[in-house]
Amino acid sequence: MMYEDRPLVQALENFQKQRPTSFHVPGHKHGALSGLPEVLQDALSYDVTELTGLDDLHEPTEAILKAEEKLSKLYGSIRSFFLVNGSTVGNLAMLYATADKDDIVLVQRNAHKSVFHAIELIGAQAVFLTPEWDEQTQTAGGVSVATVKAAFREYTDIKAAIFTSPTYYGMVNMELKEIISVCHAYDVPVLVDEAHGAHFVVNKSFPDHALDLGADIVVQSAHKTLPAMTMASFLHIRSKLVQPEQVAHFLHMLQSSSPSYLLMASLDDARYYADTYKEADYAYFQIYRLQLLRGLRSIPTIEVMEVDDALKLIVRVEGYTGFELQEALEQQGIYPELADLYQVLLVLPLVKVGHVALSVDLESKFKCAVDTLRMSKASARRQILHLPAMPVSAVAYKTAQLREMKSEWVAIVDAKNRVAAESVVPYPPGIPLLCAGERALEEHVRQLQNLLDAGSRFQGALDHQTKQIKVVIE
């Protein structure tokens, strides 16, 4: 098979046709020494290293360069990069390229934890922008223009601003273009975590992607909605404020020096998939989606919500938490992306013409799950307060100060007005409820209690068994 429009995939295919003998890393020797299942061993023949004809991710001149140039052309960037350490490394690199120690960085309060990790590593000062609350989905949405303007009135030396759009739940910030204009008026570069929006480019019916709205740097998880392998992501630059060389410098330091060719090949293939997505494919996807919607909505007690991104659907069953619905669905072999107090989130496949999207009777499995669920006692739907009332806020103590302070464990019910010693992160979606150094408000305490009672999983300084949180001693 020929892969002329997938330069790296074609280079790997040409390499394998030579039936090469491995006296190089990795040590599995094209899978020959691997004890993995046979189907995985076969894939390992493409898990190679920087050999002649296969190029070098960190100094690309051949196949990888051509693949990244095709990616850049698709998204309309000055330069685009393959990322093999997930969108996390993209968030780290773009913040390292735009901020230094003690610099003020505007950050959307519901940003991914990797954004806060980047700010901590740099030693920058985060100024939190509280997003608007979306009543329909009961989730945090995007930041308003008014909040961004308020931040610029309060802080005069802002070095960068980072926003998340779309959210994990598929909500797009409709004010993002105006927000970018406000930031650019102050010569502040705008960085957008568009992890869940890599597919927006395939059809005009999807929302505009952030680069077209004027963002300086955009990071996308190609593995979330395009057919790339887990960890495979993109980074795009189109900016007068940030030079691609700055970002490339930090990617060189932060990405693995032994990048996976399987991941990079899947990025090349995902770009090709998006590049060749036709109107007929989108029409086929819409047919599939509408059939799924009709099937789900035919089941009594199921509520299905559509959001800005057509690839996302939210499903609820009145009287039960999303965690309970998730468990019932998993018993039927259906695995949602995530669950929360209210609902489960489904990420649909971006199918093309001819793809068999559903190989099982989903409607019947959903009905069985709901029937099983309703045999159990309904949960009391817990009221969860929205978000802290302050549109613009900052941490009480920076990371460097926290390192010098002692800490203790206290009951969550007693945590109001105490400062979190470490971040507390419900996972998924990986968005910190409390950041290290942030003072807990009553809203934080109530949300923590609600999420724990409902069975949410956490990362960070929170003990599920004792229902305690780690706070600093002031």
How would you portray this structure in words?
The chain has helices at 7-17, 38-43, 63-75, 86-96, 113-122, 145-154, 176-185, 222-225, 244-254, 261-275, 279-297, 322-331, 362-374, 399-403, 442-454, and strands spanning 79-83, 104-108, 125-129, 133-134, 139-140, 158-164, 190-193, 217-220, 233-237, 302-306, 312-317, 338-339, 344-347, 392-394, 407-411, 424-426, 458-460, 462-463, 468-472. Strand 12 (338-339) and strand 13 form a beta hairpin. The strands form five sheets. Strands 1-9-8-7-6-2-3-14 form an eight-stranded mixed β-sheet. Strands 10-11-13-12 form a four-stranded antiparallel β-sheet. The protein is α+β, with helices and mostly antiparallel strands and 474 residues long. It has 15 helices and 19 strands. The longest helix has 19 residues, at 279-297. Helix 1 (7-17) packs across helix 10, helix 6 (145-154) packs parallel to helix 7 (176-185) and helix 12 crosses helix 13.
Shape: globular
Largest sheet: 8 strands, mixed
Strand order of the largest sheet: 1-9-8-7-6-2-3-14
Distance between the termini: 66 Å
Number of strands: 19
Overall structural class, as computed from helix and strand content, comes to: alpha+beta
Q: Percent of residues in helical segments?
A: 25-40%
Radius of gyration: 23 Å
Provide mean pLDDT, rounded.
Answer: 92
> Count of helical segments?
15
The share of residues in extended strands comes to 15-25%
- Low-confidence segments, given as residue ranges, are none
